Protein: Molybdopterin molybdenumtransferase
Organism: Methylacidimicrobium tartarophylax
Amino acid sequence: MPVVAFVGRSGAGKTTLLCAVVRILAAQGIRVAAIKHAHKGFEIDYPGKDSMRLREAGANPVLLLSPMRRAWLEEVAPAAEPDLWEAVASLGRSPIDLLLVEGFRAEGMPKIELYDPSLGQLLCERDPDLLAVASEGALSPPDGPVSFDRNDAEGVALLILQAAGLAPRSQGGGNGSFPRARGPLPLQEARRILWEAMTPERMAAEEVGLSQSVGRILATDLASPVDLPSAPTAAMDGYAVSAAHLGEQGREFSLAGTSAAGAPFLGSPSEGSCVRIFTGALLPEGTDLVIPQEEVVLQGEKVLLPGGRCVGENVRLKAESLAQGQELLSAGTRIGPRMLALLSAVGREKLPVRPRLRVGLLCTGKELRPLGKPLGPGEVYDSNRVFLSAALAELGVDLIDAGIVDDDPELLEEKLDRLAEKVDLLVTTGGVSVGEGDYVGKLLAQRNAIVFRQIAVKPGRPFLFARWRGRPLFGLPGTPAAVFVLFYDLVGPLLRRRMGESPSRERMRLPALSRMQKRAGRTEYRACRLVAGPRGEPAFHPVSRTDGAGLLPSASADLLALLPEESECIEVGERVEVIFLPR
Ligand SMILES: Nc1nc2c(c(=O)[nH]1)N[C@H]1C(S)=C(S)[C@@H](COP(=O)(O)OP(=O)(O)OC[C@H]3O[C@@H](n4cnc5c(N)ncnc54)[C@H](O)[C@@H]3O)O[C@H]1N2
Ligand code: MOO
């Protein structure tokens, strides 16, 4: 949920502007929640009221519920500052598009400062989160934050909509400093808006057992509770002895006993004795190295050990692999088998993971048939739904598949409404172009839900981003090749960001091995194979000369190349951004 704070010195007019902005946003159908910083011990309850009597009797929290309003009265542990983010998390899954906060200047979030020079300096001058300043008459800083007159609530509201990636319902306002893109948005610009709109959801973590955690995103950093190994152990099968007893020349030793993994030798061998030891077994007290059995000569009851060895040879020291308190995994890690191995080795049975994101999927088109049904004239199998269900499942989301919907505006609206109630985010395919039957784009435009429409890419140009009932909505074109590229370049990475996953290293620049022509003014996607270049270095070439990113090339591609917007031709050897594709 986007959060914007109104900060400023007392008396600068925060609440007045905030109320005016809320009024404008609410009138546009944006569901705004507000949090106000208050001083300790405020009271909204009245002496003698039942709620206060219950509270005084020791009930905590006390909830007051009526059919039209509810209040939550809770005594919290006294602290220097109230915990904003805990309160934000407790808003949970309330249907909110935007949270406006009054105060909490020290927290990291976009801020608008109400500034009155007669009350003192600007508070957030050095704060990188400062979005705008509102004061008596707009200031005109050379290159500072945007500036507004403090009565320009329209301008501030529009700025907030832009910053939050919400759909602006009106144009103009402010300093006129929000140019709206005409025609398709450059990919970089679309990426920036999407990235800001899809910040990680602040949701409480869930505890899951290790075996249920594969594919989930770790919610907090984890440190090792133990040392590994917990004490020195043998790294080879052989004989444990003390370097001091061994000396430079080597000599005969008697055998004091055996130390095996799980069955240690208890006690400490005397001057002339050594201990038979196996890999992983605890090193007996008083010994400090292991001589591999291949280097030892057995003579009846005696063992001839070679000399000139160093302390610690063939020994794994205490905490050599892991020290207690050492960081194991950081928040945002996607859990896979390798992480399970690490966590089980330190005895961790449960993990805090981020809740699953609920994603609703809807494919539109009269011509679509599910697999297994015979095709009529002009009909096609719904391959987008098959692809997206599998690709979304791979990301570990909770998928709610609403199936296929005909190109019928009323049906579509009803389906979207019902789906939006159950999910955090919507993905649709088809119906975003300009034809008579393309109702997705039309409906969203009529409901003022579109944040942007069309990006300068091929394929995938009609991609749109909207808000439906407060939920982000990715409107993918119907063309399967466009769905494929947009999923791997935008939708997938954005969902992963929303889920709190740390950015991964699936993108890099690689040299092209063939010359590729394109049109300037748009980013073109090409399905490509990873190959070895002339000196064995990683390089790539397109799967197909003709079909940039069709379904057939996509199925055999290793990576997706993004041929840059400005160029008309990629020369052999030129480095280009590529995205590695999962299997
Ligand atoms: N006059 C214009 N026509 C088109 C433009 C344009 O700018 N002006 N843009 C073209 C581009 S680019 C694309 S991409 C498509 C996008 O159209 P829609 O999103 O409205 O998609 P549909 O018309 O519903 O379908 C397009 C195509 O894809 C097939 N399809 C749709 N859904 C599925 C599915 N689930 N599984 C498999 N195949 C699917 C559908 O049968 C169509 O063949 O518009 C161009 N037109
Ligand atoms: O952009 Mo569309 O996806 O080329 O066919």
Summary: The pocket of LQZAQKY5 (ligand 1) is lined by residues 363, 365, 367-368, 380, 382-385, 429-434, 438, 459, 461-462, 477-480, 482 (CB under 6 Å).
